Amino acid sequence: MEIAHERRNQLDWLIQVAYTAWRMFVKNELPNHAAATAFYFLLSTAPLVLLVTYAAQALSRLAETSNLAAMLLAAFYNQFHLDELMTMGFIPSGAGAAVGGASLVTLVLSSRGLVNAVQSAFRVIFPDDSKRKMIVSWSLPLIIIPALFLLLILAVLVQGALRFLAQGDLLGALSAQLLQAANSSLMLVAVWGLIFAAYWRLPLRHPQARLAMLFALFCALTLTLLSYGFGLFFSIEKYRAVYGALGGVVFVLIGAYFACLAFYFWAQSLYSVSKVDVAALERLFLGGDAAGDNRLEGWVFGRANRLLDRYGRAYAPGERLIAEGDDSDCAYYLHHGRVGLYKNLDGQDRKLGVLEAGELFGEMAYLLKEKRTATVVAETEVTALVLPPAMLEELMRYSAPLSRRIIGVLCQRLQRMNQQARNIDQQRGKQT
Question: Which residues contact 102 (CB under 8 A, 6 or more apart)?
């Protein structure tokens, strides 16, 4: 029974993470960021391909005197499909030094826009009040792009060499299959490593390394499936037939856009893991007001069992939840039952009122960083969510409707307490 309960809670958590990620993905307008990133990627592609061509030309000169260089050159052409790119017009048949210099300048400018587009999206996905130093912000694109370019060349050369060896007649069938598997694994690991570096280091407040590694793996696998599906269902010849000479550009742009969508969605999912409890608590506190008539959200966050297992605590009738004068180290949400509010006046505990299920209490002293101003005692069997110190601040930062409700409740509660205090003073005056 406990195992089934735990599995249901895990399933609820997964569904809530997926829904929170999708809701924030749409709210943050990440498809627009993906389009901007894909555009800058397209601008970076042309000069990058030309630089790859120059590298191939330099390698071809070495191939005249070296068998190893000839082998690498064949793998290079095979891996980058340079012959096909020349046939389709992406690469000119002859490339001069002047064109190379222009390509380098274009690559620097477009790559800076690409890095800035990614950073802009990450500031939306991983919001943080702090900022990078200006020198770091300006120099980061100039460091990242050359490093990525060198890693890309190295990975592709190694991968191309493995593929070339796998196709050689001197290798047996088993060895060829092993090399093919190593070839595919190398590309997957290279892509995963780059995505992990982005997920882990680009956010100003770095997420946990293990979570970043896991979601980077999900993204890498998604990109692999997209690449396979794109090659299976789409053909560049069809785009060329529809768009003419621009068909290849449209083909690359659409592929880059889908890749950026996957990249940003898994980044948003990584952030949503840390916010899923906040989203669930917001729905619990606000009820139907959190999503209006959104039935899907009501179903996703309808069960509070997971929150109760993590934050819930049971109190017997007469048990004290809060003592007047204690330090305010948490806030409470009354999930079930009724509690009474008491304040010490002239050495006697005077009852100020009661709180019913669905109310938040203990937050006033925490927000004001003061001692507890009243004693809270359970009048019935009570189940309350005990929220850790930073959770209330996260809730108020995450949800504007919840912040307004908390402020409204605080004002009403202060008004009631002041009225109760005036009534007690009047009764005391009559007695004297």
Answer: 47
